[in-house]
Design goal:
Largest sheet: none
Number of domains: 2
Shape: rod-shaped
Radius of gyration: 31 Å
Number of strands: 0
Order of helices and strands: HHHH
Length: about 120
């Protein structure tokens, strides 16, 4: 049977074990700080990449401003009946076809850009 016994003397092995434990703890703290710094840099780089991608296409930016200023309304054939049933004042029988249009492509690109955020 193994019994622990208290010995009042300190050996060189005890000192080396204590030093190695302290060094390991210090290394762990520095590794954690480095990982945190790396995560911040990667997040900043990601946001920079998204911003550059957004600003490189002027048509997509213009379309975003149309959405933001509510100058673009989505009136696809699938929602035409919805407007008609609600008797909305916004109902436009000569609505612009959205499918296959530039607006659809720009909206897809905006969604793809912003979904990564």
């Amino acid at each position: 049977m193994f019994v622990l016994e208290w010995k009042p003397e300190i050996t060189i092995g005890d000192v080396l074990t204590a030093i190695s434990t302290i060094l390991a703890a210090i290394g762990l703290v520095f590794a954690g700080l480095q990982l945190r710094q790396n995560a911040l840099v990667q997040r900043a780089q990601f946001l920079l990449d998204i911003t550059e991608r957004y600003f490189e296409d002027s048509d997509v930016r213009r379309f975003y401003y149309k959405l933001d200023y509510r100058e673009f309304t989505f009136k696809d054939s699938s929602v035409q009946e919805f407007y008609y049933k609600l008797d909305c004042k916004d109902f436009d029988p000569d609505f612009k076809k959205f499918i296959g249009s530039d607006e659809e492509r720009w909206l897809d690109q905006l969604i793809y850009i912003f979904i990564k955020l």
